[in-house]
Structures are given as structure tokens and as C-alpha cells.
Amino acid sequence: MSIANASDSLDVLIIGGGIAGASLGALLAGERSVLIIEAEDLCGRHATGRSAAFWQASLGGDTPERRLSLLSKPMFDARWPGSDVPLLRPRGALHLTSAGMDNFEEIGDLSGDDRPKRLDRTELDGKIDGLREQWTGAWFERSCADIEVAAFHAACLAAFRRGEALSGRTQASSVPRSFPGLGC
Ligand SMILES: Cc1cc2nc3c(=O)[nH]c(=O)nc-3n(C[C@H](O)[C@H](O)[C@H](O)COP(=O)(O)OP(=O)(O)OC[C@H]3O[C@@H](n4cnc5c(N)ncnc54)[C@H](O)[C@@H]3O)c2cc1C
Fold first, then answer.
1. CATH number of 1-53+148-184
2. Per residue in 95-116, is it b (16+ CB within 10 Å) or e — as a string?
3. Which residue is closest in CA terms to ligand 1's atom 51?
4. Ligand 1 atom closest to Cα of 171?
5. Which of 18, 59, 64, 86 is the least crowded, having the fewest Cβ atoms under 10 Å away?
């Protein structure tokens, strides 16, 4: 099927099948007629395929990005939208500090395991051997986790495909009104 044939019945056209487009597609596919178009031969070639894959509650300070990260946690814990494997793997993180630079200025209203906990040098030595003297302590962020990006992305695309059965490859800039083909 081509976009030209599909476009009359489409509610939503998503440009790009990275994690943003794939997750939006998964969310909408059962409710709307949705198409994702992707310029590459695979949907994970760009930022999604290069992520360091880390989930960190404190990242970004007290910003909308942090609030979005916090909102994503229950979704990952529930393996949305149908992953066979857990989407977060607990790891924890240590933010090392030196003398006179031991504030954690972006704690804001983080609570529970998301709230960084101060460790002095003795406690730090209990976690890591052989640290240089310059590190006087650390902030321990227990809830940090590895994100299973590939599994999440694959689950989103699978959920999307359960609602749409279209395949091919198209660059959006080349198809502003009359669509010669389609992707993802
Ligand atoms: C090095 C690195 C490390 C990162 N580490 C982390 C991390 O630890 N934790 C974290 O949460 N985030 C991390 N990120 C950020 C995260 O990877 C991105 O925010 C996320 O992958 C963005 O997804 P996206 O779908 O918006 O973009 P992309 O994955 O880039 O997807 C966009 C897609 O759109 C397609 N496209 C573009 N233009 C067109 C067009 N005209 N027509 C058709 N298709 C088009 C592209 O081919 C691409 O597939 C990292 C990013 C990078 C680069």
C-alpha cells in the first residue's frame, strides 16, 4: 500500500520512527489510523540507537524534562507497551564531590529512592576501592537504572504494527502532499 492510497483514511502521520515516533505510534495505533514514515532502512539509526540508555531522576534539574522522566518510571515498570523483558535494570549512580564543591543543587522535591543521599568519604570507600584523595564524598542516587532501549523501541514498533500493516521507506521532505511511498 502507498501513502497516496492510505492518506485519505489517516488521522495521524508521524515523521520519524525513533523512540519518539514509535512510542507515539504505539499509543495511538489502536485508537486512530496512524502511519509512521522513516527515512532510514531501520528506525533506530539516529539518537535512539546511540543513547547511553540511562534513566536518572535528577537529570536536568527542576525542569519539565525531569517531570517527564519521573512520569516515565511507572510506564517502564509496567513494561509498556508489552515488552517481554524488564525495561529498567537498577544500577544506582554516584556523583563524586570534592572539597568546597559538595552541594547537589538540583535535588528539588525528589523523594524516596529518587532523592540523592549524601555519602561521606568513609561511606564512599565502602563502595569503591582506590579512589583518589580529591574525592571527599559523593551523592548516591539509588533509583538510577539502565534503560533497555532496544527492547522498548522494538515493543513500541510491534505495538504500532499490530494496528498498522504498512511497510516501505520514504523521506518526509520528499512527500509533502503526494506520497510516493511510506516507511517503518
Ligand atoms: C550519545 C547520546 C546519548 C544519550 N543518552 C541518553 C540517556 O542516557 N538517557 C536518555 O534518556 N536519553 C539519552 N539520549 C537521548 C535520547 O537518545 C533521545 O532523546 C531520543 O533517542 C530521541 O528520540 P527521537 O525519536 O526524538 O529521535 P531519533 O531517534 O533521532 O529519531 C528520529 C527519526 O526520524 C527520522 N527522520 C528524520 N527526518 C526525517 C524525514 N524528513 N522523513 C522521515 N524520517 C525522518 C530519522 O531517520 C530518525 O529515525 C542520548 C542521545 C545521544 C545522541
1. 3.50.50.60
2. bbbeeeeeebeebeebeeebbb
3. 51
4. 42
5. 64
